[in-house]
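User: Hey, my collaborator sent me this sequence without any context and asked if I could get a structure. I don't really work with proteins. Can you help?
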Amino acid sequence: MEHDLHELKRILTERLFTTLFQPIIDCKSGQLLGLEALVRGPEGSSLFSPERIFATAQQYDLLFAVERAVSEQAIACYVLLGKPGRLFLNFSPVVLGDNSTLEWLENMVERYQLRSGDLVMELSESYVIGDIQALAKQLERCREHGFVFAIDDLGAGYSGLRLWSELHPEYVKIDRHFIKDIDKDPVKHEFMRGIVELSQRLGCGIIAEGVETRAELQTVNQLGINLCQGFYLGRPSTKPKLSCELDDDKLSAVTALPIKYSETVQVLCSYVEPLPINVTLAKVWDRFKNREQYSSLPVVHNGRLIGLIHRALVLEMLSGPYGRALYAKKRASELVTDNAIVVEKMASLGEVSQMVTDEDDMYVRQHFVIVDQGRYVGMGNTRDLLRRITEVRLMHARHANPLTLLPGNVPINQHIQQQIDVEADFTVAYVDINHFKPYNDLYGYQRGDEVIQLVGKLLRRHCESRGHFVGHVGGDDFVTVFNSESGEEICQQICKDFVHSQRELYNDKDYNHGTVSALDRSGEKREFPLVSLSIGLVPAHPALKRVDDYALQLSEAKKQAKSAGQSSVVVYRPEPTRLCVSV
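Assistant: No problem. I've predicted the 3D structure and written it out in structure-token form, which is a compact way to encode the shape of the chain:
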């Protein structure tokens, strides 16, 4: 290994690293998201492979020097390529979490005339991380300066989900093990389905690594993963492909959409007359014969669920030669099981679906019991649940906003009306981007779209992850429906995070000046402040009986928020005389 140390010092001194780039493609458009920088040592060297390079660097305390030299060389080559997309750089947690790293990154941005958001730091799950909380604080400092992060090789180690939950990365890259043969492996397919649903709730982009076949590409796209990397799309090269033609021969996929099944389980409730606790098995069997569609029946006492009696257990006891003679008069209470799936009537379809999926008992998961604050209401059928979720998925797919893939006007209106109909405790928020038109006119529609997508991502991270509904009305307008909480604190944090992202949106001159020069709606040139958010909230009120009623109040709430100044959150509670009452 002493030879490797001398070889590493020689490579460092003479800058003998070779930088390769592998493209990361957005399969919806065929356009380049970015390039991952990969390193090789000199041909014929014992340190040709990156594994040997970094293992030697770590052994001899040269990790900082090697990672920064490799990264700076990659940045220089990236600039020579014309800065296409974002540059993904690999870092170890010890280097990325060091207090000096932020200063080094800012030096790189200034030296090579980059935006902070051009650089994505990849943190591999394969490394052991001693203090995740300290690392999270350091990354948050970097994020406040506009830098972006990714977790690499998710699934390769043991701490991936914890890293994801505590570091809040902008991207998660799935280890190639889970992509290889995913079209043939149902376990990998289901694993990735769960990862996709989690990423959608957290507002995090997923990148599938190691895509090597057409079938793998089609499968991950059908799961809703549009960002892909692998030999099938482009091999590592000093002159990488900067786009990819995704014709019908290369890709034929239906993109899944981010769906939150927020409709309540009440829509599936069917009243099934419960059994009294002292009923005999003979009478239980008579009830089952008249309820062919049910594998279980509820037992209720004083309005409270005691448990379920399963058809199979009753049949087993009564079907033998002497079964009826021995057990027909036996009390059914001895067969009651208490492992039923019990859900409150206000539970969302998504929540119930998760409970059913987590249940191992085949009999238990065929039906679920619906209660209202613990009192028996009725039962639901799992088949009906899955059918309804499929209908919701298709409906959202038809009406989703194409830019953010969030539910559009139809799902938004339906969700608000559902909350009204069940007299839920909820708050509706209207989110608007201030001074968006001047920004869009000055920086172009593509950068404008990035601002809109940023807002959608923040809403997903802060709202969907807590179980709240998020929709995109269109343009720069969004609606969020908060369940059983005002949402004011969450909205304040969203505004704060958006302001922290401003540095990434502007060039140095405009950002430092704090304004941009653009034409107003009358065609006159004037100065506009930087983009910010205005959020107006309207709590539920019994006088508001239709979606139209809330729309009128939200319009007023948005006006008040805009008039309050930059990044404002206003809770609008109109006077009773001003409430719109439906007739």
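In plain terms: The longest helix spans residues 63-80. You can pass these tokens on to your collaborator as they are.
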